[in-house]
C-alpha cells in the first residue's frame, strides 16, 4: 500500500533558486527509504515540502490518502500529526529536561498554555518514559537537554517525534552532526522503529554506505532532480 506519493513537485524560492524540478516518487507503508545526494541537492527542501513546512511551487503530494496541498487548515493539522520530524540540529529546547522535550511533541494536541504549564496527563508521561526507555535514555529523563551529548540529543529528538504516534518519520540529515558511533546508534534505532513499530521512515543522508546498509530503497537527488530510484538489492557497483 502506498503511503506517500510525490507527483511532479517543483520548488522555486523567491530569490530565483530552483531547488526542486518535477520530483516524482512513491513510498510504501513500512518502507525505509533514504534520499541521498550532495549538499544543496534539494533533499531538505523536499522533506519540508512534504509536510508543508514550506509550500511547493507546483505539483501534488498525497499522504495517507490526503492531498496535502488541497486540505483545509484543520485537516492539514491532522496530516502533520501523522508525520514526525527529526532534524540535523535536534531542535530541542535547551533549558527543558529530556522528558519535557519529549512531551513537547504533544504540543500540537494542546493549547500552548497547557504545554507551557506542563499540563500533561499521567498517560502522556508514561508514554514518554516508555519511548525514552526504548531509546536507551531511561537514566537521563530529568537531565537538562543542553547537558546531553549529540547522540543523546538526537535520541530525544526521535522520542519527541514518536510521541505523536506518526505513520511517517521524516529525518533531515539526522546523523550529519554525529560521530560514527553515535551515528550507528541512531541509524539502528531508526531501522528498529521501522521494522518493530511499523513506522515508515524517510531519511536524508549524504553517505551512500549508510544508506545501503539500512534502507529498503534509495532515491538519489542531484540539482533538484531524481537521478536514481531503486531497491538496495538492485544496486550494483556500476550505479
Ligand atoms: P540539501 O538538503 O540537499 O543540502 P537544500 O534543500 O537545503 O539541499 O537546498 C537546495 C537548494 O535550495 C540550494 O541551492 C539552497 O541554497 C536553496 N535553498 C534552500 N532553502 C532556501 C531558501 N529558504 N531560500 C532560497 N534558497 C534556498
Ligand atoms: P523555542 O521557541 O523556545 O525555541 P520551540 O518549542 O518553538 O522552542 O521549538 C524549538 C524548535 O523545535 C523549533 O525549530 C521547532 O520547529 C522545533 N519543534 C518544536 N516542537 C516540535 C515537534 N513536536 N516536532 C518537531 N519539531 C518541533
From TrEMBL:
One of its GO terms (molecular function) is ATP binding. Signal peptide: none annotated. The keyword ATP-binding applies. SUPFAM superfamilies: P-loop containing nucleoside triphosphate hydrolases. InterPro entries: AAA+_ATPase, ABC_transporter-like_ATP-bd, ABC_transporter-like_CS, ABC_transpr_PhnC, MetN_ABC_transporter-like, P-loop_NTPase. PROSITE patterns: ABC_TRANSPORTER_1, ABC_TRANSPORTER_2. Keywords: ATP-binding, Cell membrane, Membrane, Nucleotide-binding, Phosphonate transport, Translocase, Transport. Residues 4-239 form the ABC transporter domain. One of its GO terms (cellular component) is membrane. The keyword Ribosomal protein does not apply. SMART domains: AAA. This is Phosphonates transporter. It comes from Peribacillus simplex. The lineage of its organism: Bacteria, Bacillati, Bacillota, Bacilli, Bacillales.
Amino acid at each position: 500500500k502506498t503511503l506517500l506519493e510525490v507527483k511532479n513537485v517543483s520548488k522555486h524560492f523567491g530569490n530565483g533558486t530552483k531547488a526542486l524540478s518535477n520530483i516524482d516518487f512513491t513510498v510504501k507503508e513500512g518502507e525505509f527509504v533514504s534520499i541521498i545526494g550532495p549538499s544543496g541537492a534539494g533533499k531538505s527542501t523536499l522533506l519540508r515540502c512534504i509536510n508543508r513546512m514550506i509550500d511547493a511551487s507546483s505539483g501534488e503530494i498525497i499522504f495517507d490518502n490526503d492531498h496535502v496541498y488541497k486540505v483545509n487548515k484543520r485537516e492539514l493539522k491532522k496530516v502533520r500529526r501523522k508525520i514526525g520530524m527529526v532534524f540535523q540540529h535536534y531542535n530541542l529546547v535547551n533549558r527543558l529536561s529530556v522528558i519535557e522535550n519529549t512531551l513537547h511533541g504533544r504540543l500540537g494536541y494542546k493549547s500552548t498554555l497547557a504545554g507551557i504549564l506542563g499540563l500533561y496527563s499521567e498517560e502522556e508521561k508514561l508514554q514518554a518514559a516508555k519511548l525514552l526507555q526504548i531509546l536507551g535514555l531511561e537514566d537521563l529523563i530529568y537531565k537538562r537537554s543542553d547537558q546531553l551529548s549529540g547522540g543523546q540529543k538526537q535520541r530525544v529528538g526521535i522520542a519527541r517525534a514518536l510521541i505523536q504516534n506518526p505513520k511517517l518519520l521524516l529525518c533531515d540529515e539526522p546523523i550529519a552532526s554525529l560521530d560514527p558511533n553515535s551515528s550507528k546508534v541512531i541509524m539502528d534505532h531508526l531501522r528498529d522503529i521501522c521494522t518493530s513499530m511499523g513506522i515508515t521512515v524517510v531519511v536524508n543522508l549524504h553517505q551512500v554506505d549508510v544508506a545501503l546498509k539500512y534502507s529498503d530503497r534509495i532515491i538519489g537527488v542531484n540539482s533538484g532532480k531524481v537521478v536514481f530510484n531503486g531497491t538496495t538489492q538492485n544496486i550494483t557497483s556500476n550505479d
